[in-house]
Amino acid sequence: MQMTSLELLERLVAFPTVSDATNVDLVAFVSDYLKSHGVPFEVVPQADGRNFNIFATVGPNVPGGVMLSGHVDVVPVAGQPWTTDPFKLINKGDGRVYGRGSCDMKGFDACVLAAIPAMLKAGLKRPVHICLSADEEIRMDGARAIIEKFDKGWTKPSMCIVGEPSRMKVVTGHKGYWRIDTHVRGHEVHSSNRYVGVSAVFVAAKLISWIEQRDLKNKADAEAYGGVPHFDPGWTMLHVGQMHGGTAHNITALDAHFVTGIRTVPGDDGGKYVREYEHYIRTEIEPAMKAVHPDAGVTIQYRVGGPALGQEPDGEAERVARRLTGDNAIHVVAYGAEAGLFQEAGISTIICGPGDIAQAHQPDEWIELSELDKCDAFLAGLIKECAA
Ligand SMILES: [Zn+2]
Fold it and tell me: Domain named Peptidase M20 dimerisation: which ranges (predicted)?
């Protein structure tokens, strides 16, 4: 199976691998493709049993070398005004191809797979690992499943290039992401009698206000003492994007629920905010609730989306990518990615991939053919490096 990047992209886009659907068909296709080239690989299942990650190695299976990392899941298309079939790659002849995932990030995946024959021919002295992960868009558990394998003795690459859309610029930083789900349990009484009840809505309002104040404190500190360079904004942001609670205007609300997102800058730990928040709840909020009714209280659940990616002092991945692209400017991105997880696992990591993030997740998502060409050229250079 000798296929171009564009032909492979056409095949990959045709699998509707929305994060919570199954990706078995795509994985079967890629497995056949790898087998046809005699490339050894492993399929690593996700906990959900419906999604799978692929880890393939071209060249000698020795420590060092590079990992090319791309996710194969895509965001949903439901409710978006697509003018073409999202799961059919459309070439309108305008220098772009359209389809869900064309930019984020099956374009990179396709370029990597298309480069396999060249990798095999080059006589690699250092391995090129190909890591195609599931579930990047929601939990990033695909990357975690692969990292667990490194911990259990898989040969670990020394550097990683995550091909998220960056217009083939060398991106050395992204923010991290944590999410907190807060559930406030009140005590329901008629509002005419509200002092013997606990309003979950009133409590939620206080907590949300605390979160906003914590966010504004970070902003004020950064404005006074300087934020993290290159990031805009250069501080960790806290935000509540969703809430609901209560059942009627004249009942103290029994339940309220809201969701907080925390976008951390490199060097800042999302867990710090969770601890401060929990401390505030347990010492200042909950005792007063429980004094009115013992069943009232607050529960929180948090999820680490992923740590931030920071610039490494003399990072190998950055050095190599700068040499190959000629890009010497500093770029950071506002979106979260798997790169922070791989860096945290001790692998020198940057982001460099085709397409512009502005097209990601959009209806009529597209990528320029010239971006795929640039990525092909980048990979050809990388292969040369690994064969030298
Ligand atoms: Zn992505």
Answer: 172-285
Residue 45: strand pairing partners? 52
What distance in angstroms lies between residue 337's CA and the mean position of ligand 1's atoms? 7
Q: In this structure, are residues 132 and 17 in contact, taking their beta carbons and an 8 Å threshold?
A: no
Mind listing the pLDDT tens digit of every residue in the chain (388 residues)?
Answer: 789 999 999 999 999 999 879 999 999 999 999 999 999 999 999 988 899 999 999 999 999 999 999 999 999 999 999 999 999 999 999 999 999 999 999 999 999 999 999 999 999 999 999 999 999 988 899 999 999 999 999 999 999 999 999 999 999 999 999 999 999 999 999 999 999 999 999 999 999 999 999 999 999 999 999 999 999 899 999 999 999 999 999 999 999 999 999 999 999 999 999 999 999 999 999 999 999 999 999 999 998 888 999 999 999 999 999 999 999 999 999 888 999 999 999 999 999 999 999 999 999 999 999 999 999 999 999 999 999 9
Distance (angstroms) between ligand 1 centre and the Cα of 353 equals 10
How close is the Cα of 76 to the center of ligand 1, in Å?
13
Ligand 1 centroid distance, CA of 360 (Å): 7
Are 139 and 235 in contact by the 8 Å Cβ rule? The answer is: no
Q: Check if the beta carbon of residue 24 is closer than 8 Å to that of residue 50.
A: yes
CA 40 to ligand 1 centroid distance, Å: 25
Domains of the chain, each with CATH number or no CATH: 5-174+309-387 (3.40.630.10), 176-306 (3.30.70.360)
Helices (H), the chain: 5-13, 24-36, 106-114, 116-122, 141-151, 200-225, 270-280, 286-292, 316-325, 339-344, 369-387
Q: Distance between CA 121 and CA 110 in Å, rounded? A: 18
Ligand 1 centre to CA of 246 (Å) is 37
H or E element, residue 244: strand 237-245
Distance 162 CA to ligand 1 centre (A): 9
